[in-house]
Every structure is written in C-alpha cells, then in structure tokens.
User: What shape does this take?
Amino acid sequence: MYFIAFRNFKKNSIRIDMGNFKQSTLAGIFSVITIGILTFLTYRTEFGVFLLASFGSSMVLLYGYPESPFAQPKNVFFGHLVTAMVGLLVLHFVPFPIFITIPLAVGLGVGIMILLNVTHPPAGGNPIIVIIGSVSFDYLLSPVITGSVIIIIFAIIVNRFILKKSYPSQK
Assistant: This one.
C-alpha cells in the first residue's frame, strides 16, 4: 500500500498556491504577534501567566481558517475552559496513576466539548498540560480565561478590521 501511495506522490505532491501565500504569510505574522504578546505578558510583567501551549495550535484556526466553526469565539473560549476544567477535576479528584488519568481526562474533555457544541480541536490537549503540570484551579483564570479572551480579541481585530473577513461567522 505504501509503495502505491509513494508512486503517486508526484501527482498528489504539495504545491504552493499563490492565493494561499498571502493568507499563510499573514497568518504567520499575526500568530507571531499574538503569541509574542502573550509571551511578553507572561515573562516580562508581573501580571501572571497568559501562555498556554495549545494556544499555538489555536492560531492555525483563528488566522488560517477563521470561517471554521472550530475557530469561532464561543468554541475557542469554552473549548479551552471545558477541557482545562476537566483536566483539573481529574487531576485533583481521580486517584489513579497518570497513565490512566491523562487519557481519561482527554476523552472526557473531547466528549464534553462535542456534547456542548463548543469543539475547538487545539483545546483537546489542555488536560495533558494540566495533569503533567499538576496545576492549581487558579490555572482556569490565568492562563486559560485571560489568554483565551486575549487571543479572541486579537482574532476579531485581525480578521474583521485588518483582513476584512466576516469574523465571527454570522451563521
């Protein structure tokens, strides 16, 4: 099977679409700015922690595919909040070894996001971050809530006012 796929590599190979060049360049630049500000606030001020690893993958959706239902503010905010909360609850109240709590928390978080219709795929990694980091409930406020609000504000400013896109989607 691998050889058949490899044989067809040339016809299915990666191509650079110049229409995507502008979008990818702008997405990269705005990701640098957004994550740069969160990093600055985290490491150069006394305001607290604003940076969450999964925000990096949120940038792909917010700036690369803002029309996606997964990139809408409700999904970004509540997706991150729900999965971080699930991670915290499992961390503090489920007395099993880490090799059980991490997959359990990820599965519960993903299931609850889908159930509540707030799916944001990058948020699926939050329980892993929460459990490995053994964080406290303060983690919900900073970086989860404050960081989510900041990236959503940036996404609205960039997509609506700079890129002139209809964001958030009016569906």
Observations:
- DSSP finds seven helices and no strands in the chain.
- Helices lie at 2-7, 18-43, 54-64, 73-93, 98-115, 126-133, 141-162.
